[in-house]
Amino acid sequence: MAPIALGAAFLRAARPDVEMGLVMMSAGGAAVPFPGHSGYCAAKAGIEQWVRVVRREYAGRTGAPWLVAVRPGFVDTPMSRAVATMDASLYPAATAMRQRIEAGGAVPVDVVARQIWSALPPDPATMLLALGRADVTGGVARFDDDGVQLAAAA
Predict the structure, then answer these.
(1) pLDDT tens digit string along 4-56?
(2) How far apart are CA 27 and CA 70, in angstroms?
Protein backbone atom coordinates (compact mmCIF):
# COMPACT_ATOMS: atom_id res chain seq x y z
CA MET A 1 0.00 0.00 0.00
CA ALA A 2 2.92 2.40 0.56
CA PRO A 3 3.70 2.88 -3.17
CA ILE A 4 0.05 3.66 -3.85
CA ALA A 5 -0.16 6.09 -0.91
CA LEU A 6 3.00 7.86 -2.11
CA GLY A 7 1.71 7.92 -5.68
CA ALA A 8 -1.60 9.41 -4.56
CA ALA A 9 0.25 12.08 -2.56
CA PHE A 10 2.36 12.94 -5.60
CA LEU A 11 -0.75 13.29 -7.78
CA ARG A 12 -2.45 15.55 -5.22
CA ALA A 13 0.63 17.79 -5.19
CA ALA A 14 1.03 17.84 -8.99
CA ARG A 15 0.66 21.27 -10.58
CA PRO A 16 -1.19 21.52 -13.89
CA ASP A 17 1.22 24.20 -15.19
CA VAL A 18 4.26 21.87 -15.01
CA GLU A 19 4.69 18.69 -17.04
CA MET A 20 5.29 15.84 -14.64
CA GLY A 21 4.66 12.18 -14.37
CA LEU A 22 4.85 9.15 -12.16
CA VAL A 23 6.52 5.79 -12.80
CA MET A 24 5.20 2.93 -10.69
CA MET A 25 7.38 -0.18 -10.57
CA SER A 26 5.57 -3.42 -11.29
CA ALA A 27 6.87 -6.87 -12.19
CA GLY A 28 6.06 -9.92 -14.26
CA GLY A 29 4.43 -11.30 -11.15
CA ALA A 30 1.54 -8.90 -11.78
CA ALA A 31 0.49 -11.15 -14.66
CA VAL A 32 2.20 -14.48 -13.92
CA PRO A 33 1.72 -16.20 -10.56
CA PHE A 34 5.03 -17.23 -8.97
CA PRO A 35 4.43 -19.86 -6.27
CA GLY A 36 6.07 -18.74 -3.05
CA HIS A 37 5.52 -15.05 -3.75
CA SER A 38 1.77 -14.61 -3.49
CA GLY A 39 1.98 -11.30 -1.61
CA TYR A 40 4.53 -9.86 -4.04
CA CYS A 41 2.50 -10.88 -7.09
CA ALA A 42 -0.72 -9.51 -5.61
CA ALA A 43 0.96 -6.22 -4.71
CA LYS A 44 2.35 -5.75 -8.23
CA ALA A 45 -1.04 -6.57 -9.78
CA GLY A 46 -2.55 -4.01 -7.41
CA ILE A 47 -0.09 -1.35 -8.56
CA GLU A 48 -0.97 -1.97 -12.20
CA GLN A 49 -4.70 -1.81 -11.47
CA TRP A 50 -4.22 1.42 -9.50
CA VAL A 51 -2.34 2.96 -12.44
CA ARG A 52 -5.07 1.80 -14.84
CA VAL A 53 -7.88 3.30 -12.71
CA VAL A 54 -6.09 6.58 -11.94
CA ARG A 55 -5.29 7.07 -15.63
CA ARG A 56 -9.02 6.83 -16.35
CA GLU A 57 -9.84 9.23 -13.51
CA TYR A 58 -7.37 11.78 -14.91
CA ALA A 59 -8.26 11.26 -18.58
CA GLY A 60 -9.14 14.52 -20.28
CA ARG A 61 -7.91 16.76 -17.47
CA THR A 62 -5.80 19.63 -18.74
CA GLY A 63 -2.27 19.52 -17.37
CA ALA A 64 -2.74 16.15 -15.68
CA PRO A 65 0.50 14.28 -14.95
CA TRP A 66 1.27 11.23 -17.02
CA LEU A 67 1.27 7.90 -15.21
CA VAL A 68 2.80 4.58 -16.24
CA ALA A 69 3.61 1.19 -14.71
CA VAL A 70 6.88 -0.54 -15.60
CA ARG A 71 7.67 -4.24 -15.61
CA PRO A 72 11.46 -4.11 -15.74
CA GLY A 73 12.09 -7.77 -16.54
CA PHE A 74 14.61 -9.92 -14.68
CA VAL A 75 16.95 -7.39 -13.04
CA ASP A 76 20.24 -8.27 -11.37
CA THR A 77 19.67 -6.90 -7.87
CA PRO A 78 20.71 -8.02 -4.40
CA MET A 79 17.10 -9.12 -3.86
CA SER A 80 16.97 -11.28 -6.99
CA ARG A 81 20.29 -12.86 -6.04
CA ALA A 82 19.04 -13.54 -2.50
CA VAL A 83 15.80 -15.07 -3.76
CA ALA A 84 17.79 -17.27 -6.17
CA THR A 85 19.51 -18.87 -3.17
CA MET A 86 16.23 -19.83 -1.49
CA ASP A 87 15.28 -23.45 -1.01
CA ALA A 88 13.25 -24.59 -4.01
CA SER A 89 10.63 -26.06 -1.68
CA LEU A 90 9.91 -22.51 -0.42
CA TYR A 91 10.28 -20.76 -3.77
CA PRO A 92 10.01 -23.09 -6.73
CA ALA A 93 11.49 -20.57 -9.20
CA ALA A 94 14.73 -20.23 -7.22
CA THR A 95 16.63 -22.85 -9.21
CA ALA A 96 15.68 -21.32 -12.56
CA MET A 97 16.55 -17.84 -11.27
CA ARG A 98 19.93 -19.02 -10.04
CA GLN A 99 20.66 -20.65 -13.41
CA ARG A 100 19.59 -17.52 -15.27
CA ILE A 101 21.82 -15.30 -13.11
CA GLU A 102 24.76 -17.65 -13.57
CA ALA A 103 24.20 -17.61 -17.35
CA GLY A 104 24.19 -13.80 -17.42
CA GLY A 105 20.45 -13.60 -18.07
CA ALA A 106 19.72 -10.97 -15.44
CA VAL A 107 19.84 -7.40 -16.74
CA PRO A 108 22.10 -4.96 -14.86
CA VAL A 109 20.28 -2.21 -12.97
CA ASP A 110 21.95 0.60 -14.95
CA VAL A 111 20.77 -0.92 -18.27
CA VAL A 112 17.19 -1.14 -16.96
CA ALA A 113 17.37 2.45 -15.70
CA ARG A 114 18.46 3.67 -19.16
CA GLN A 115 15.65 1.70 -20.83
CA ILE A 116 13.06 3.24 -18.52
CA TRP A 117 14.47 6.75 -18.90
CA SER A 118 14.53 6.49 -22.70
CA ALA A 119 10.84 5.47 -22.75
CA LEU A 120 9.72 8.55 -20.78
CA PRO A 121 7.49 10.41 -20.99
CA PRO A 122 5.28 7.70 -22.45
CA ASP A 123 2.79 8.47 -25.19
CA PRO A 124 -0.68 9.10 -23.71
CA ALA A 125 -1.99 5.65 -24.73
CA THR A 126 0.72 3.78 -22.81
CA MET A 127 -0.27 2.38 -19.42
CA LEU A 128 2.45 -0.26 -19.12
CA LEU A 129 6.05 -0.54 -20.28
CA ALA A 130 7.37 -4.12 -20.34
CA LEU A 131 11.16 -4.21 -20.59
CA GLY A 132 13.46 -7.01 -21.65
CA ARG A 133 11.21 -8.14 -24.48
CA ALA A 134 13.04 -9.84 -27.35
CA ASP A 135 9.93 -9.62 -29.55
CA VAL A 136 10.03 -5.81 -29.95
CA THR A 137 12.58 -3.32 -31.20
CA GLY A 138 14.53 -1.82 -28.32
CA GLY A 139 13.25 -4.47 -25.93
CA VAL A 140 10.38 -2.29 -24.61
CA ALA A 141 6.78 -3.30 -25.27
CA ARG A 142 4.01 -0.79 -24.65
CA PHE A 143 0.47 -1.70 -23.57
CA ASP A 144 -2.70 0.35 -23.22
CA ASP A 145 -5.18 0.40 -20.33
CA ASP A 146 -6.92 -2.71 -21.71
CA GLY A 147 -3.70 -4.74 -21.98
CA VAL A 148 -3.49 -4.43 -25.75
CA GLN A 149 0.07 -4.19 -27.07
CA LEU A 150 0.61 -0.91 -28.91
CA ALA A 151 2.68 -0.44 -32.04
CA ALA A 152 6.37 0.23 -31.47
CA ALA A 153 7.21 3.87 -30.78
CA ALA A 154 8.75 5.70 -33.70
Answers:
(1) 999 999 999 999 999 999 999 999 899 988 888 899 999 999 999 999 999 99
(2) 7
